[in-house]
Amino acid sequence: MAPEESAEAARLLPSFERRFLAARTLRSFPWQSLEEKLRDSSGPELLLNILQKTVKHPLCVKHPPSVKYARCFLSELIRKHEAVHTEPLDELYEALAEVLMAEEPTQSHRSYLLPSGDSVTLSESTAIISHGTTGLVTWDAALYLAEWAIENPAAFAHRIVLELGSGAGLTGLAICKTCCPSTYIFSDCHTCVLEQLRRNILLNGLSLEPDTTDPARHPEHNAYNSESPRVTVAHLDWDVVTAPELAAFQPDVIIAADVLYCPETVLSLVRVLQRLSACLKNQQAPEAYIAFTIRNPETCQLFTSELGRAGIPWEAVPHHNQKLFPYEEHSDMKILKLML
Fold first, then answer.
1. CB 305, CB 299: distance < 8 Å
2. How far apart are CA 93 and CA 90, in angstroms?
3. 218-230 per-position pLDDT tens digit
4. 127 or 199: which carries more pLDDT confidence?
5. Using an 8 Å Cβ cutoff, are 185 and 274 in contact?
6. Minimal CA–CA distance to 304: which of 264, 338, 254, 257?
7. Are 293 and 329 in contact (CB under 8 A)?
8. Which positions fall inside the FAM86 N-terminal domain (predicted)?
9. Of the candidates 105, 135, 158, which is a domain's last residue?
């Protein structure tokens, strides 16, 4: 392979790798660039390398995506090969045969590579809405907030972090693995989401402590002398949680991602933020970071208006530089910093 071909392949491989491990939609892959490279090259090296970075990737072998997803990906890869080369590539057909023989599980996996060389792997529902909740899949704003956190670890280092509406757990797991919080509290209100959260925390090698709302009960755990944070999962229903229950968390930082999906949720979120602000007024005011995708501008306007009515100042966080995770290129996402 010529040096210029090798350089282009080096750019293509991470793109295929990150998208496949995260099980992104097939239309998001750089298929056109691949076709151009296949036409310019005579050997199978590029396709074999893509196979090793995707279906044969160690993370994928250990924690596979859905069978349907792998089948569709390999079928498209074979089509691209056949459109350019007449000789079949046995390795592609063998990989497809293995996938065709596999059974489709109810849970599939997505993996996200971190700059440290570590990764976050999530077990997720194969349906976008499952068990009456959207919390069993990872949404783009969670990826966006995780990127910002990785670029700004000082916002979380040696601090108690409370996440509202943790969903599948991507943001929190990335923060736990890269930002050194002293304590991380995942929370949600759906039983099935909480069960999956616990599974994902253990799947990523973190220890899970008994469900408690009082981090102060474990003073012996200190991030200054421990490599991993204290991690708990809490059932937290924004509409019924009491001020004493919120005060027991003692958070230094509060975060939430992609929770502004309807007016009712916006109002519930602002109410719980008000309660947090009131019950923590005798300690240093915590920072709050809320990330969201602007799908409906009216919903976002409602959020900022309700923050104003509640007396909670806010400011927009500047867009960060690095794009570590594969999400929709043209998604309009924002992070607001709230001063509680």
1. no
2. 5
3. 444 444 345 789 9
4. 199
5. no
6. 338
7. no
8. 11-99
9. 105
Pairing of strands 183-188, 287-293: unpaired
Q: Who contacts 279 (Cβ-Cβ below 8 Å, separation ≥6)? A: 243, 244, 246, 247
Same domain, 143 and 201: yes
Residue 73 sits in the same domain as residue 158: no
Pair 130, 172 in one domain: yes
Query: Side chain identity at 80, as an amino acid letter?
Result: K
pLDDT tens column, 122-152: 997 655 434 433 445 678 999 999 999 999 9
Q: For 53-84, what is the HEC assignment? A: HCCCCHHHHHCCCCHHHHHHHHHHHHHHHHHH
Average confidence (pLDDT) over 276-297:
88
Cα-based angle 288, 292, 298 (whole degrees, multiple of 5): 110
Cα atoms in the 13 Å half-sphere on the side-chain side of 300: 15
Closest CA to 30 of 332, 333, 326, 331: 326
Contact assessment for residue 181 and residue 221, using Cβ atoms and an 8 Å cutoff: no
Give the domain-ending residue among 78, 105, 132: 105
* CB-CB contact of 215 with 187 (8 Å): no
SS3 at position 221: coil
**Distance (Å, whole) CA 134 – CA 247:** 27
58/64 Cα distance (integer angstroms) = 9
> What residues pair up with 113 in beta bridges, in sequence order?
119
The pLDDT value recorded for residue 128 is 45
The token duo for 307 is 């923050």
Residues 122, 230 within the same domain: yes
DSSP per-residue letters across 160-193: EEEEES-TT-HHHHHHHHHS--SEEEEEES-HHH
